[in-house]
Amino acid sequence: MAANPFTLPPNYPLQTPSLYFPASAFSLFPPCNSSTRHKFANNRLFLSCRCGALAINGNHSTPTFSDSGIMLFSLLQEMGFNEKETNTIIDANAALRLTPFESIRSRIHFLQSAGLYGATLSRLISKRPDLLTAEEINGVLSLIAINGDSELKGKIEPAQVERLFNATDPRFMVGFERKVQLLLEFGVPKEKLARVLNNVNLTKALCLRSLQEFERMLAFLQRFGGPELVLRRPAILNYDLDAQLIPRVGFILELSGGDEAATSTVLHKFPFVLAYTVDHLKDHVQFLNSYAELSYEEIFKIVLVYPGLFSASRKRKLQPRIDFLKQCGLSSQDLYKFLMKAPLFLSLSFEENLANKLVFMVKIGYRNRTKELAMAMGAVTRCSCKNLQEVIGVFLNYGLTCEDILDMSKKHPQVLQYNHESLEEKLDYLTEEMGREVGELLSFPAFLGYKLDGRIKHRYEEKRKTLGEGMSINKLLSVSVATFSTKKKKKKKKKEEVPVKQDS
């Protein structure tokens, strides 16, 4: 028999052959009670006969083998198996009769080192007793056991280890460590390798796939984001390359016009798109093409901005949303522009989100089924209903009316989506520090979109030195940074060129 890499070192404390092994000698199982000890002591004759029969059936009749059999039988009962279960395990795995007890005990130690303890380990051995003897799992254990020497030692979750050993025949674990090494060569960082392996089906992703198939998959993924894509969604490694990945990526690639970089962007933004069948993807694209009258090029540009639209139900979300926009008078070109700016509109819940926002829009004066209402709804897709309500409340508290808010939002729809706390700070600065009237916002609502510290305060303080208090907030903020800096330099230079008056 080949040397077992998990054989304990020569100086490792081993229990000498006897009928009963106290827990302190093994340190593998919890101590049993006195009734269990008494039961074992009374069954000495049974164990001797049973293990003698094992030796005869296995063509081994030496006293050493008989003692090893007694130790194995006792060890399994220490783990919690009754006599019937113990007999079943030994009968189901002939290799147990030929494997030295020390090797079996060492294997149990390594299984525990991989995070399998107590009832979990007993349940696993009951289903797959060959785990105690199969040499094929040596590579897996050498990677994940706590006393191993790889970057994965002790980092694979016990539940994941249990699923692997429970669902996989040991013969399919050959080459496991080489496939893990390929992931590192592929570009998965060492510190993130455990996270990837804890979030895949190890049986599907690594064990049931040949080394050549695994290499092919990694080479294919390398074209579309490589390790970044796997890190974003490790479950991609579970998919079948020829039946799932190639057709699904191929459909998106075709929609992009063959643009691999753009396809990679879509996959990176929304890797879950690869969980959908080609038929699902095709149905969404055909719906937008026929019902919304969008070209395939326009559809891909929308997908590039928001690939999550593939997760929206056609019947429950896409069709009702497109119907609403059409009722508001949007043409196919208007629909395209709207969805490029507010694609999230297609996915939001109607009852919990859109319906509440529609109520707010109507209350401040928007008329139903108008383009202005559609544009306003698009502007507030990225803010919560609570924030929208707070924004309207801030404007009202500063003396603006609903008509004023309506007028501002038509000129600058973004005012409805700003953070209400930031909005309040800017209004305070406008009225208290700058000494201006809130009504000035009606002609220049874009003021509320500029950063308070980065632009408003800086420019106001600079200009106040030369222009005083009555400057136009539009001219103050709307000029570009380059223009503002140039004017500032010119005025400074002009000031320096003024001749100093000479004393007579």
Describe this structure in words.
- With 504 residues, the protein is an all-alpha fold.
- It is 62% helix and 0% strand.
SSE blueprint and pairings:
Layout: H1 23-26, H2 34-42, H3 44-57, H4 63-78, H5 83-92, H6 95-98, H7 101-113, H8 118-127, H9 138-144, H10 158-167, H11 176-186, H12 190-198, H13 202-207, H14 211-222, H15 226-232, H16 241-255, H17 260-269, H18 278-290, H19 296-305, H20 314-327, H21 332-341, H22 350-363, H23 371-379, H24 385-397, H25 402-411, H26 420-433, H27 452-467, H28 473-478, H29 481-497
Helix pairs in contact: 3-4, 11-14, 14-15, 24-26
What labels describe this entry?
504 residues; mainly alpha; 29 helices; 0% strand; disordered N terminus
Summarize the structure.
With 504 residues, the protein is mainly α. Helix content is 62%, strand content 0%.
